[in-house]
Amino acid sequence: MRTNHSAGGIVFKKEHDKLLFLLVRPKGKTYWLFPKGLTEEGEDEKQTALREVREETGVKAQIVEKLGTISYFYTFEGEKIFKTVTHFLMEYEGEDEVFDENKEIDEKKWVSIQEMSTFLKFRGEIELFEKAKKALKVT
Known about the structure:
The protein is of the alpha+beta class. It contains three helices and six strands, in the order E-E-E-H-E-E-E-H-H. The radius of gyration is 14 Å and the shape is globular. The protein starts with a strand and ends with a helix.
């Protein structure tokens, strides 16, 4: 069985006294996730997370803290793969002025805490979001 490792971020920003979080909808899918991607040779988890958030969304962010790692199995082209994903809490710093839409992402969206339950569907991502809220001291 093949294994792979990814890293990504739960990116937040404050807008009009409201906390918003960045989600992406992968190409051809109906579900939403936090941006993430495969670690490239020579990268550490932090470098991967920052790069992937920027590549997938055009968003520049700064790491606040490591939230944790989730693991799961999935099947790709008939092969079972064991995947681990490390997530970091990240604070929004800005966006690239010119951003070419990512080939892997159909859409990005900023979502409030109150709306998040209608977007997150996977247990691991829900648990990481709970950790992010605790780190930010919000409910």
